[in-house]
Amino acid sequence: MSAVDTSPDVTAKPRTGLIVAGVLTVLVLGSLTRYFEKHVPAWTKGTGLAEIGAAIEYPVYAIVIGLLANAILSATGLRDRLASGFRTEFFIKTGLVLLGASINLKILVTAAGPAIAQAVLLIASVFGFTWWLSGRFGLDDKLRALLASAVSICGVSAAIAAAGAVQAKKEQLAYAASLVILFALPSIFLLPALADAFGLSSEVAGAWIGGNIDTTAAVTAAGAVAGEEVLQVAAIVKTTQNALIGFVAVGLTAYFAFKVDRTGARPGKSEAARELWVRFPKFVLGFIAASVIATIYLDQVGAAAGKAEIGVINDLRTWFLIFAFVSIGLEFKASSLKEAGWRPIVVFGSAVVFNLVIGLGLSLLLFSGVDLT
């Protein structure tokens, strides 16, 4: 059974009604999330909270709203009855498959040299450091995988992919997502300011921002603060990193299947292959297929002509991820996180600093004098 399947054991007849009611609850709360996402920037415009209002992303609203609804439904005794409709896994996997459509594989050719080199080196070094440090602090292996994936690749999306690969608890995913948002928000303003203070070129600044801020939306916001040329390079670098989610998911699946969770004798080749396939997050194949289809489509009709269609898919992806984070908030139980305490925060913060230092060095090494705009 999947780690995120918490459907209560109820009889068939009421179960259908409870599932529908639970799903409707998620849809309503998701719509409320989108409402705040779209209107808070306008409400705070011209005030001292304008920058914060513009920077807060939908995962923050979705998780907070889900948690508040969780408390209300728990107090009224409805939460456990509706839990069968909180389809976190379905929403997450669908959202990630749709994410593939936004990754044009031709970008990997456009940025073949420095962007791919930075992505591979940065992911490998930051993932390795975070995994090692998490082990030194005695964190659970599944939480280690989520934190390392999130900080080294692309934040929440990478944590979601890792959670599917290692069968992590939903509380661990919620914790990892919260840490991503907590550290990404100040980075939106800090990195452009530091890039300006260091006198970095647009290419180096864009590579640093794109390679270090953990979510695509936050990268876009930071790039916009730093300037259009910086934004273009940051988008290329971040997209190149995003394209590597699938490879990391495959590696984590194999590692946890054959080392962390393996019991008994070493399996034979056929048994090992079967175990790998059973545990492998199948949505990664959908992610890759969506990316290939989108790449072919844009190549045929042109990026400008296909922009509207890709935009619709991206908006649909956002909706599914909003529903996923609302469901995480609804299913969240603090008891599982009390055991982790302050250690994950220290690990994640240390990894962010390590990422900044290594990322700056690689950006200077690989992007000085390079023109990707």
Indicate the low-confidence ranges by residue numbers.
1-14
Beta-strand percentage range: under 5%
| Strand and helix order | HHHHHHHHHHHHHHHHHHH
Q: Give average pLDDT, whole number.
A: 79
- How many β strands by DSSP? 0
Give structural notes.
The chain is mainly α and 373 residues long. The chain has one domain (88-367). The protein has 19 helices and no strands. It has helices at 12-44, 50-55, 58-76, 79-82, 88-99, 106-110, 114-136, 141-154, 156-166, 170-198, 202-212, 216-226, 228-242, 245-260, 269-279, 283-301, 303-331, 335-338, 343-367. Helix 3 packs parallel to helix 17, helix 8 (141-154) runs parallel beside helix 10 and helix 9 (156-166) packs parallel to helix 14. The longest helix is centred in the N-terminal third of the chain and has 33 residues, at 12-44. The model is unreliable at 1-14 (pLDDT under 50).
What's this entry about, in short?
With 373 residues, this protein is an all-alpha fold.
